[in-house]
């Protein structure tokens, strides 16, 4: 683990490239350090100036008569390597390289970056950047701003990590507008050395940080990221909210199997972030909208929300939003109803959402809000107010701010006003109540808090390791396929059986007579499939016939299948005669080797329409037992499997077991780029299921 304390809490800072030229980055960074109220000592380094902004300058970092904890480097890319070498000789404990002109500009810059990285490694200096925006530590104990932005944020309990300097600059501006305070802000740029995992490890232990915000474009080491973030969100119970940029995967269409065609990078990132316990959001403003809530309140006890409004339509909108987000809008307790009757007009309906009616004054509204906060059936309140001549919005905001101090329940204030909303934001924030322009925003924030609460309380399960597997048999099968693109179906089945994944009984035959004998042993109805290296998708070339009921039909279909293959000059390795599966629910279970995450597992409703409905869930391997069940529950098909409308319940336990077994298989044998079990037909509870088709694409 890298020691990042000298980076974030340095006692001495050298700005190498501090400039006297107004408007230059070297001038702005040095000025920002001075203006931020930095509690340590800062030294400008500029061989062409005696002083910078009134502070004595030094020709080189080697000339500074003090130990240096942090060097901020703002010089041309070509001389950065030499400057880092000087820092190493000086014994500098950490370095930020703000300079650009490295791998972001192409091959020449990448080579330069490698040279800089090599020097930093030689002297064991933790290096942030290059091509980064800098860091901020807003703690009163440090007050350091090494960025070239225009804003020094207030101190707060939110940390912001960004890969993009431009996003970071925008975030600082928004933080000021939203009255959001930061503990730490860091832009890590090209991450030649320090990456998101190093920063997360530091923030995990940082006592000033309660909430972590991330802007990511890629991941350095996904498995390490998973381990660290699960620890932060589970053991330390610090929520992480993230924007993951880059949502498309042009190569998705080129994949040769169903799983490959569905597993676009964004779907996998979604699944991966779920496994991390990270809450993904779409926009920068959402990061702050939701972070304010996490930074302000304890997590709600449950998902029951009370809604209050002085305009019926707004209450309906909030209730709809709550229902869509999976929140409950409960009936108020009898005690609450009695309280409300005392100060509501006789014509008021005492329901949730509660409409205190348009003629409500401050007292009626605030007394009603108190009643909701005191209700044992309510875990959080969405407080809506529309402009009214009966009470000023700013006064409503003040009263909400006052009473909030007496309750431990989260309050999400949506006070709809275009008249100086900044004043309303500041009034509410005095009591750490987040302001939302519209009720749906507050509902979304609450829903994320509930989701995180449930994550922290989930049962913890391990990665299940199955010992009843035949690894040597799998090795022998794979060894036969050197130079081939995919396994023949029978060998795919044998690999599944080696990992105790049930397969519908079958025989491999080489003549019509053998086929008739096999069908008799298997019992009708049966399925015929061609076995050929020329055929991957059998249905498209007439290479499969299902539901063959008797001997005569079998003879006919056998001949047609052979003829279909000969017409195309396909070489036949054999014919697979398989027992026709009884009717059940067709699912798909698959795996894909992703270029970022390695092996990824998939589950969904199967059959030929899987790519039409795309009702699938993903997880990065290896998967835990709880993840296997969550995958099943995330699909719309779960309702069918779980017995919708008092229907049959199916063997969900068997599906979960097969998911875990396939996950173990592809982790232990990294030879497969794609695996499809489609369909895996599942039957009623305790009756299991069978793989009825298996496709293994070799890597």
Automatic annotation (TrEMBL):
GO terms for molecular function: acetate-CoA ligase (ADP-forming) activity; ATP binding; metal ion binding. This is CoA-binding protein. The lineage of its organism: Bacteria, Bacteria division WOR-3. The keyword Nucleotide-binding applies. It comes from the Bacteria. PROSITE patterns: ATP_GRASP (PS50975). It comes from candidate division WOR-3 bacterium. Keywords: ATP-binding, Ligase, Nucleotide-binding. Residues 493-529 form the ATP-grasp domain. Gene3D superfamilies: ATP-grasp fold, A domain, ATP-grasp fold, B domain, NAD(P)-binding Rossmann-like Domain, Succinyl-CoA synthetase domains. InterPro entries: Acyl-CoA_Synth/Transferase, ATP-grasp, ATP_grasp_subdomain_1, CoA-bd, Ligase_CoA_dom, NAD(P)-bd_dom_sf, Succ_CoA_lig_flav_dom, Succinyl-CoA_synth-like.
């Amino acid at each position: 683990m890298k020691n990042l304390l000298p980076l974030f809490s340095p006692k001495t800072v050298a700005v190498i490239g501090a400039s006297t030229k107004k408007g230059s980055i070297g001038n702005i960074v040095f000025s920002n350090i001075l203006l931020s109220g930095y509690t340590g000592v800062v030294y400008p380094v500029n061989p062409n100036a005696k002083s910078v902004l009134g502070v004595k300058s030094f020709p080189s970092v080697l000339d500074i008569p003090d130990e240096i904890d942090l060097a901020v480097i703002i010089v041309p890319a070509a001389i950065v390597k030499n400057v880092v070498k000087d820092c190493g000789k000086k014994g500098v404990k950490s370095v930020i390289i703000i300079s650009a002109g490295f791998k972001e500009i192409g091959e020449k810059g990448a080579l330069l970056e490698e040279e800089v990285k090599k020097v930093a490694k030689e002297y064991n200096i933790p290096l942030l950047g290059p091509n980064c925006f800098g860091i901020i530590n807003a703690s009163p104990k440090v007050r350091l701003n090494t960025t070239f932005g225009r804003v020094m944020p207030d101190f707060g309990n939110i940390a912001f990590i960004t890969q993009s300097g431009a996003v970071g600059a925008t975030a600082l501006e928004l933080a000021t507008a939203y009255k959001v305070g930061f503990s730490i802000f860091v832009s890590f740029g090209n991450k030649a050395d320090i990456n998101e995992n190093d920063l997360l490890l530091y923030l995990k232990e940082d006592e000033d940080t309660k909430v972590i915000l991330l802007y990511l474009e890629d991941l350095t080491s996904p498995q390490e990221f998973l381990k660290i973030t699960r620890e932060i969100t589970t053991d330390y119970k610090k929520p992480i909210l993230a924007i993951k940029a880059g949502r498309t995967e042009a190569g998705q269409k080129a994949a040769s199997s169903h799983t490959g065609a569905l597993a676009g990078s964004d779907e996998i990132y979604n699944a991966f972030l779920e496994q991390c316990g990270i809450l993904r959001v779409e926009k920068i403003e959402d990061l702050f909208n939701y972070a304010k809530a996490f930074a302000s309140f304890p997590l709600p006890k449950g998902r029951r929300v009370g809604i209050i409004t002085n305009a019926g339509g707004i209450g309906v909108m909030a209730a709809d939003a709550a229902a869509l987000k999976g929140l409950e809008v409960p009936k108020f307790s009898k005690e609450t109803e009695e309280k409300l009757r005392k100060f509501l007009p006789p014509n008021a309906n005492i329901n949730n959402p509660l409409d205190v009616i348009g003629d409500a004054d401050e007292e009626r509204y605030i007394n009603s809000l108190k009643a909701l906060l005191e209700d044992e059936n309510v875990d959080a309140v969405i407080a809506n107010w529309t402009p009214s001549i009966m009470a000023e919005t700013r006064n409503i905001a003040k009263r909400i701010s006052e009473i909030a101090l007496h309750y431990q329940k989260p309050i999400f204030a949506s006070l709809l006003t275009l008249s100086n909303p900044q004043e309303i934001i500041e009034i509410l924030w005095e009591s750490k109540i987040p302001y939302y322009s519209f009720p749906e925003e507050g509902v979304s924030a609450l829903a994320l808090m509930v989701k995180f609460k449930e994550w922290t309380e989930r049962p913890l399960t391990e990665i299940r390791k199955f010992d009843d597997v035949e690894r040597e048999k799998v090795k022998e099968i794979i060894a036969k396929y050197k130079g081939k693109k995919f396994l023949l179906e029978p060998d795919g089945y044998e690999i599944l059986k080696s990992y105790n994944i049930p397969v519908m009984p079958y025989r491999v035959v080489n003549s019509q007579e053998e086929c008739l004998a096999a069908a008799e042993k298997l019992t009708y109805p049966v399925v015929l499939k061609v076995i050929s290296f020329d055929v991957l998708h059998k249905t498209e070339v007439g290479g499969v016939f299902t539901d063959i009921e008797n001997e005569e039909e079998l003879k006919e279909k056998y001949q047609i299948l052979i003829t279909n293959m000969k017409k195309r000059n396909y070489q036949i390795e054999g014919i697979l005669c398989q027992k026709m599966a009884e009717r059940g629910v067709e699912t798909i279970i698959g795996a894909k080797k992703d270029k970022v995450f390695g092996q990824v597992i998939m589950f969904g409703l199967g059959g030929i329409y899987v790519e039409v409905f795309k009702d699938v869930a993903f997880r990065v391997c290896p998967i835990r037992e709880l993840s296997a069940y969550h995958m099943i529950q995330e699909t719309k098909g779960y309702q069918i499997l779980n017995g919708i409308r008092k229907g049959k319940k199916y063997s969900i336990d068997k599906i979960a077991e097969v998911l875990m077994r396939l996950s173990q298989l592809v982790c232990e044998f990294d030879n497969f780029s794609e695996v499809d079990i489609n369909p895996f037909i599942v039957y009623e509870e305790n009756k299991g299921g069978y793989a009825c088709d298996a496709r293994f694409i070799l890597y």
